Automatic annotation (TrEMBL):
The lineage of its organism: Bacteria, Pseudomonadati, Pseudomonadota, Gammaproteobacteria, Vibrionales. SUPFAM superfamilies: AMMECR1-like. It comes from the Bacteria. Residues 14-203 form the AMMECR1 domain. This is AMMECR1 domain-containing protein. InterPro entries: AMMECR1 (IPR023473), AMMECR1_dom_sf (IPR036071), AMMECR1_domain (IPR002733), AMMECR1_N (IPR027485), AmmeMemoSam_A (IPR027623). Signal peptide: none annotated. It comes from Photobacterium profundum (strain SS9).
Amino acid sequence: MDMSVTSYQKFNKGELTQLLDIAREAIRGHLSTGVIKTPQLDLYHKKLLAPSACFVTLEVNGQLQGCLGSTVAYSPLVLEVHNKARASAYEDRRFMPLTEDQLDDLTIEISVLSEPQIVDIESEEALIEFLSSHKVGVILSNGNKQALFLPQVWKQLPKPQQFVRQLKQKAGWNAAYWSPNITVKTFTVSRLKGKYNTIKGKYF
């Protein structure tokens, strides 16, 4: 079976810092004026204008406040980041919309995804064995159900069995479910995290 690991998408800290600034401006603009002002595309390098999938994760005092994204990009990366940042702050239905008094404790993390690659997995046991040595992002899908965990989730769920179990439950399956029709895709991310008020990020 093909167990190749997805290679990292190459974005350096300077490029990711620009994306972090875009996310901050999207959030600040919505709060301060309510006017949706999209990034001026001619200010950015062509690499940041290519369509790329991303997720934007928001935390307040270390607690998740919003996380939205996509595995498929249909617009330039700078616009994807802008739109996902605004959506994570104000449209994630799991949370109340972000408020101004939360900004001092807000952190933003940008994750730019590599293109997900199908991994030929014959069983749940084979997936667990693979993940024991490859701490990558994973997408499970079957029919109309799908769930994704970013690589960062390994910090909260370090054991492969637990990681897979929680991912299945996120998709709407029970913990014991497995089917030969499940499609497994893996991906990696370039990511940068920083406080909203300073955006001095930690590069991964």
